[in-house]
Amino acid sequence: MLNNKVSRRQAAKLIGATAAGAFLPVGLWAAGPSRILRAIPATGEKLPVIGLGSALTFDVRSGSAAAKVVAEMIALFVQQGGKLIDTSPAYGNAESVIGDLAYKAGLTKSLFLATKVWTRDKLQGLAQMEKSLQRFRTRTIDLIQVHNLSDVDRQMTSLNDWKAKGRIRYTGLTHSERKGHGEMERAIRVHKPDFIQINYSLMDRAAAQRILPLAREMRIAVLINRPFGGGGIFQILAGKKVPAWAAEFDCHTWAQFLLKWIVSHPAVTCVIPATNDPKHLADNMSAGVGRLPDPKTRERMAALFVGF
Ligand SMILES: NC(=O)c1ccc[n+]([C@@H]2O[C@H](COP(=O)([O-])OP(=O)(O)OC[C@H]3O[C@@H](n4cnc5c(N)ncnc54)[C@H](OP(=O)(O)O)[C@@H]3O)[C@@H](O)[C@H]2O)c1
After folding, report:
1. 57 CB less than 6 Å from ligand 1?
2. How many CB atoms lie within 10 A of CB 209?
3. What is the pLDDT at residue 33?
4. Is 227 in the pocket of ligand 1 (CB under 6 A)?
5. Which of these, 47, 109, 175, 181, is most buried using a 10 Å CB contact count?
6. How far is the CA of 57 from the centre of ligand 1 (A)?
7. What is the predicted pLDDT for the residue at 6?
8. How far, CA to CA in Å, does 295 sit from each of 67, 130, 207, 260, 262?
9. Which residues of the chain have pLDDT under 50?
């Protein structure tokens, strides 16, 4: 799944087939706004800094109207240069729907598909990973992560074995709450995964204390989950204006403000906001182009969020 190129004909088909085409001019896509990329330390392979989450948002019934929106979202994501989609067998129907829709649109190879293993049993874990391969209709999955560090020591032996056999390209570990950071630190040191995925946002900066510096020191790629704290932050920010100085780093909305703050941390490889609104997706993707805040500006940004 290394190829991020979508042919012009394929793109035109996608744009024509989606409502997304209504607000993204083909010219803009064809010119390709230059995306900010980050290298995966283990290999040097580059990923765009804005990815896509799928918990709740993509848990829809196959063939439903909601699934059509998901198809539109995946097409728009690829059309705007997106690559990494994060999912899990724990997200209801999301993994199946993503695998199915990406395959039908001919986009599986344009994506970097990240899923998880989530069980406390070796054989069940292996069966779950086989199912993920079937759902993605592929022979190799880009990344499988141990979801919430569940049964991490046993599941990592399976992931390392699958990586050695070429059935996955990268191994990973995830958690999304502060209470998991101590165990994440231990697991990073013991298992040396290719990726970790952790919660980090302007509302929750704890990962910057130990996890992000450790990942940087050990040359581990970092995915960031819950960048909007699950979304509630937008109610708090409603009616508040984005500061005018944010334009200095090409930021015009609160979503871009929150995302640019995250991806300007030097340890971060890619952030995975979730949405099922095409306009929000386009907004989030805009955080992956243009300038990023420098360290001093990051502090200024953080000062606005004290007490959140
Ligand atoms: N343990 C784990 O491994 C773990 C745990 C948590 C999350 N994750 C991963 O991380 C992903 C992201 O975390 P999350 O889903 O908890 O929450 P999130 O990305 O922090 O927030 C999602 C919410 O933000 C809203 N939103 C998105 N873009 C917006 C925009 N531009 N403007 C206004 N509202 C916007 C969405 O509503 P709309 O749909 O209306 O846009 C949605 O309700 C998950 O989907 C999952 O893939 C992993």
Report:
1. yes
2. 11
3. 65
4. yes
5. 175
6. 8
7. 40
8. 41, 43, 17, 12, 11
9. 1-31
The CA 53 to ligand 1 mean position distance, Å, reads 6
Q: What pLDDT shows up at residue 209?
A: 98
Q: Which atom of ligand 1 is nearest to the CA of 277?
A: 41
CATH number, span 46-303: 3.20.20.100
165-185 residue pLDDT tens: 999 999 999 999 999 999 999
Residue 269 CB–ligand 1 contact under 6 Å: no
Q: Is the Cβ atom of 10 under 6 angstroms away from ligand 1?
A: no
- Going by alpha carbons, the residue nearest to atom 30 of ligand 1 is 280
Can you give the residue ranges of every domain in the chain? Answer: 46-303
pLDDT computed for residue 308 by the predictor: 72
User: Ligand 1: distance of its center to the CA of 227 in Å?
Assistant: 7
